[in-house]
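FORM 12-B: Structure-to-Sequence Request
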């Protein structure tokens, strides 16, 4: 089976929203704008693409606690297509990026890493993720990123037998 891993760099368009499934799994979602500049007929053009990003479990919780609108981030994950039904009964398809890793872009910002604690599979405490941090575009604090630490992630398809909302 082909691997569909993608890595994108862009600016968060809305603060991450953290929700929980009926089974208690955390899932954060946010929008990402990716700018592409190119020259056409000697003039610079700019095209913006918008993506929805979802992050499960500790990665999602860390992202919601660390990231804000305007933060430039690097997201690595996979493309997932899912179908849902609107309140009016219309079926819709969406393609989104399900994140495996999220981190701040340090091109125009700095970040401070704060490790978080997590329970390991043997009952002990494991090392942490990526939390909090210094500046972001647009001024102010709140840069930083999430840190997927494995374990607890549902089997593919990403939602398992639970829908996220």
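FORM 12-B RESPONSE
SEQUENCE OUT:
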């Amino acid at each position: 089976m082909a691997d569909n891993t993608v890595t994108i760099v862009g600016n968060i368009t809305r603060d991450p929203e953290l929700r929980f499934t009926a089974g208690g799994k955390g899932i954060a979602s946010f929008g990402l704008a990716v700018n592409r500049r190119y020259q056409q007929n000697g003039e610079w053009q700019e095209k913006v693409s918008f993506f929805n990003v979802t992050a499960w479990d500790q990665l999602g919780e860390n992202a919601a606690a660390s990231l804000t609108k305007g933060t430039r981030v690097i997201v690595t994950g996979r493309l997932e297509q899912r179908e849902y039904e609107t309140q009016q009964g219309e079926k819709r398809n969406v393609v989104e990026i399900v994140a495996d890793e999220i981190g701040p872009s340090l091109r125009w910002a700095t970040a401070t890493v704060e490790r978080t604690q997590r329970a390991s599979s043997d009952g002990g405490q494991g090392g942490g993720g990526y939390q909090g941090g210094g500046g972001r575009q647009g001024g102010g604090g709140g840069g930083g990123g999430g840190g997927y630490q494995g374990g607890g992630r549902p089997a593919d398809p990403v939602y398992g037998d639970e829908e996220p909302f």
